Amino acid sequence: MPLYHDDDQAMLADTARQFMAEEGSIAKQLRHWRDRDCKDGFGHGLWEQFAEMGFTGMLVGEDDGGLGMGHVEAGIVLEEIGRNLTPSPFLSSSVLAATALAGGDKAAREKWLPGLISGEHVYTVAIDEGAKHRPQRIAARAEKSGNGFKLSGKKDFVIHGASADMMIVAARTSGDDDDEDGITLFAVPKDAANMSHDSVRLVDSSMATHTIFDGVELDGDAVIGDVDGGRALLDRMLDAGRLGAAAEGVGVAGGAMDMTVDYLKQRKQFGKVIGEFQALQHRAAHLYSEVEIARAAVIKAQQLMDAGSEKASLMASVAKAKVSKTAGLAVREGVQMHGGIGMTDEYDIGLYMKRDRALAEFLGDANYHADRVASLSGY
Amino acid sequence: MADLETFRSETRDWLEANCPPEMRAPVRDERDVYWGGRNASFKNDAQKAWFEACRDKGYTVPAWPKEYGGAGLSPAEAKVLREEMGAIGARPPLSSFGIWMLGPALLKFGTEEQKVHYLGQIARGEIRWCQGYSEPGSGSDLVSLQTFGEDAGDHWVVNGQKVWTSYADQADWIFCLVRTDKSDKYQGITFMLFDMESDGISTKPILLISGNSPFCETFFDDVKVPKGQFVGEVNRGWDVAKYLLGHEREMISGADGGDRTSAIGAAMARHSNEHAGELDPLLRAELAMFDVDALAYACMGEKFLDEIKVGKAHPAQPNTMKYAGTELNKRRHELMMATGGSRSLEWDSKDTDGGTPARSWLRTKANSIEGGTSEIMLNVISKRILELPGA
To answer: pTM for the full model?
Structure first.
């Protein structure tokens, strides 16, 4: 498969780009909700529009009422989300939760997917149990209890944790904390008893929770996939999310770079447009080169994932690591080249820096993924 | 598609029958390369057999038309051949600046007569070419070149000096940029072809830090070049040179599908464990980050080739490939030196095959200088792609 968008994908990209630039713009969404101290961190009106556009159920199979598209298509939407810093539950609900639910039985899919597709409900996932992404270690436990389970433990960095109607929780049903096996994924509804959220606003104005499960009672049908055998599904969900974060990161990097290159063409110092200075030209050209490389890694990984290739995990980590490094460079160069104005809240470039920082950390930073590349390559 | 599958199985059979086992091993360095030419000699019978089989089939230049010595393969067929040769690790039968550089320029700018004559010679490996571009004062600022061809009726009289002329001491002919009009910097250069045995030409190898000397200084002292031996138009040689530089940059960047950007961490770790002890955790981290960059870069190479096929690639994108690819290759060799430890310092030992790690490491430092420096690449990217204003 060639590494560029086919005609249908190019059309989707045009649509998504126009929609997000108009409806998901920084002024209309990120700043608007931030300045009102919005508790959800995103606008539900926009989310309804996402559903009308058909974005919400892109990754849901046609048999389940979705569009049955792939990660290339979801990535197209995510890149525009990144470019406009559009706050939305797309990554957590339509990518992560949708991928996990795809591995659930028919009853679970019928129960949860219609709300996801219609946009009426938003879902999220609860994975990390500390300040760094470390999904190989899971201590949260679900003990057998009657026909169901009793869930106890703590999850951190749960994006949209307080506003989600359901969260998919990775918990241990057997074995030790560091064991490969013994993991089960559970769908925990918003109104479950004995669950509490400590809600925090993050640097990029998004909302996350520290969530505590203190003997949350769950029915047997809360299980997504297999009891004790959830690791593979968890990995698949995480890889989908990492790729999604990488696609969004390419948008963040591209947005920051475009803004910076435009600025280099306008800002004058010493009687010259600063873009005439070779010191800045070379840094901008280096950045462009890195963004191109990152973009190629992302589309390659998306295609491998859609094709069900065994190399998809490795390339998902390559993509996430490369994008984290590249978007980091883009926002640092962006703020620096803007000079003093880049430090002001009024100017958007700083918002790119904040979003990049949160996205880089989400589901594993560049170091985590480089380490995973080494492990998967056998060293 | 069915035809392509037939072609693939025929190609597989042909390679099985014609590619000797000795020619299915990676090229260690220039000692394993066959360059052709008037004074060529084969290293062994296998090299000779493999070259001759490919020559007779048109596989030294598979995508060139048959009338010019090629096999006339379509791009899809050429790709199949590349893949099948790659699958058995077949060495290129013939390495040649004629194939990589002069050939593409002649295909675009040459007359029919020139194509039949010169391309055929190149395809059959009869003439070994060298490239006369750079001069002592004209490196990155190539267009400032001074070598001058004075009009003497039916011929030019060429005087001047070239430098970094790869293998000039072993080449039969040279393709050369010569100033023929001093009044116009760009439109005063002619792209000439002439015999290195002409009177008045002398060459001198330049010893490099790697201990080798593929490069030469080349001197022209009243060299007579017949008026017919130019490509394109007189005084419009810069058009040819620019076109050719684009090719050269693609080639150096490895966009032709070379494997030098593949993941190296696993092999390096093994190497280190065998020779230098357990891999240092910080070195492992560096290798891992290199693999991330190298695998991502390989994706850009694949994307670039896909985009070229359908005309989607930005015309200046070879500069991005060249810049990123050569910087990456230098880093790769730094890491190979580090994982090899003191063993990689050995300059003349049997274990290191005559100091290959160190010599290769030093050689790669030229990657970001030859064919346009990294700084020139960044200039081109910033002006032609990002459209930043010219100084």
So the answer is: 0.90
